[in-house]
Amino acid sequence: MAPESKKQRLVDSEDSLCSNQSDCNNVSKIEEGSTSSKVVRNVSAPESDSGNERNSSKPQKRSSSPSFMTDSSVDRDQYSHIPHDINNWERKHIEKLNIKVSFRPDISPLQLISRKIQKTGLTKSEVQRIESNEEEKKITSLLYYVQQSKFIEMLGRISYTTFNDLCMNSLMGLDMYADDRYQCSFIPDGLPENLKLWFYRFHTHGKMVAYIIHQLVENKEKGVQNNKCHFQHLFDTFAKMFGLTSVVSFAPCLQMQKLNIMETEVCAAPDIVYSRHCLKSSADNELENSRIVAICEVKNESPLKKDNQITASSGKTKEKSRKQTSTEEVSSSSASCSTDREFPHMSDRLIGHHGGDLLSFYQHSNRCDLIIGLVIQETHVTFTALEMTDSQYQRIKDGSIKNSEEDRPVFTFTKAYDYLKEEDLVNIIEPLIRLGLEQEK
Predict the structure, then answer these.
(1) For residue 59, is it within any domain?
(2) 3-state secondary structure of 288
(3) Could you read off the pLDDT of 144-180 as tens digits, one per residue?
C-alpha cells in the first residue's frame, strides 16, 4: 500500500515534484508513461535559473553542437570524439572545430584561387608588379592558344551526359586525335617561340589523356570496374597538361601528415599533393616550408544530385534536404530561386575528409591565410579552399576555439566542373594554368 499511495501522490502533485530533484528522478523511472509532459521536461532539462534542480556534486553534461567551445570554457573531452584518421572525418567534425562550411556555386574557380597573395619572399608591391607584367601576359597567351588547340576540338566531339553514358561509339572521333599515325598535334599553329616548350608538354600529356579515356570506356564495356586509381591517373595526367606535376607516378603512397589538436593526434594522407618542385633550396625558412600549391582528393563516384536525395514520396526527406540546403551559403542572386546549382554535390563524409586534409596541410600552403584543394569525382573537379588566419589555426590546435560567427575559418567549395566537357573546361583552364605556374616559383 505504501508504494501505491506514494505513486498516487507523485502523480497528483506535479508542483511538489519539481521542487525535489531526487523525487523527479524517481518519477521518470516509476511513472514514465503516465506523468505529464511538463514533469518529464523538468526532469530531463531543468531550468538554468533554478538552483534547487542542479546537483552541485555532478557536472552537467554539455550538449554537442557545431560551436561547442568558448574562450573561457574548453571541454577537452570533445576532442576524444574526433577520429584519429581523417579518412573517417565527416562534416560534423569540421564544424566541431568551428569551421564554417560554405557551398558557393556563384564563385568561379579563378575567383576562389585568386583571393590571397602567394608566399614568394617578395613584398606585396613587388609581387603585384611582376604578376601584372610578365606572368599576366604569358597567362593570357597560354589561355588563348589552349582554346585554339585541337584538344578542345577533340572534347567537343565526345558526346555524353555522364561518364556512365560513354561507350565506344561515343569515342568514334577520338582515334584520329589519340593515334599518332594520324599525325594530329595538340600544338596550335602560329605559336610564339617562348611558348613552344610549354605546349610540347601540353601535347604529350593530352595524347595520354585521350588514351586513358579510351581504356576506361573499354573497361566499362568489358565489365571491368574502374577504380579510384584509374580516375586518379586520368586527372593527374590531365593536370600535367597545364604544368601541375605531382609525385603520384613514382610515389603513389604519400607520407602521412600529422597534426595535434590538443591531445589528439590526427593523420591525413591525401591522394595527390601538388607542391613547388623547385630543386633549389630557399634561404627564406618560411618560404622553404610553404610549398603546397593544392591538395587533391579523388573519388570513383559521381557528384551527388538533388534527385538522388529528394523523392516525391518522402516528405520527411524533402524537409531534411531543404534544411540542409538552407544552411549553405549562396549568392543573393542564386538564393532567390531554387535550382540544382544550390544543392551541394559533395557528401558530408567527403566534406569532412577533404576539409581535414586541408587543415592538416594548412601551415605548408604557398598562400597567406589560405590553402587550395581539388576534389575529383569521376571526371568532375571541384575547387575548394580553407581560409583562416594563423591565430585561428593555433586556436584549433590549442582547443581555445572562439564561439563567434564573425571569427570563424571557412571551408568553401565551388560547383563541380566536368573537365572532359568543352563547356565546363573553359572555366577551369586559366585556374589550372595559374596553379601550374605557381609550382615553378
Answers:
(1) no
(2) helix
(3) 999 999 999 999 888 888 888 888 888 877 878 887 7
Query: Looking at residue 325, what is its pLDDT?
Result: 42
Distance (Å, whole) CA 297 – CA 377 = 9
When pLDDT is averaged across residues 181-193 and rounded to a whole number, the result is 89
Q: Is there a single domain that holds both residue 149 and residue 215?
A: yes
Most distant CA pair in the chain: distance in Å?
104
Residue 144: enclosing H or E segment and its boundaries?
helix 136-147
- Report how far apart, in Å, the C-alpha atoms of 366 and of each of 127, 247, 250, 370, 435 are: 14, 18, 23, 8, 11
Domain housing 379: 86-304+344-438
Are 102 and 412 in contact, with CB atoms under 8 Å apart?
yes
What is the number of domains present in the chain?
2
Residues 216, 291 within the same domain: yes
Q: Examine the domain organization and report whether 9 and 123 are in the same domain.
A: no
Sole residue written with cell 586518379: 232
Query: Per the domain annotation, does 152 fall within a domain?
Result: yes
Residue % of the chain over a pLDDT of 90: 48
Q: Give tens-digit pLDDT for 361-388.
A: 999 999 999 999 999 999 999 999 999 9
| C-alpha cell, 118 | 602567394
Give CA–CA dist 372/386, Å, rounded: 7
Strand pairing of 417-418 and 380-387? antiparallel
Secondary structure letter of residue 379 according to DSSP: T
Query: Is the same domain home to 285 and 392?
Result: yes
Residue 325 lies in a domain: no
Helix (H) or strand (E) holding 272: strand 272-275
Residue 53 in any domain: the answer is: no
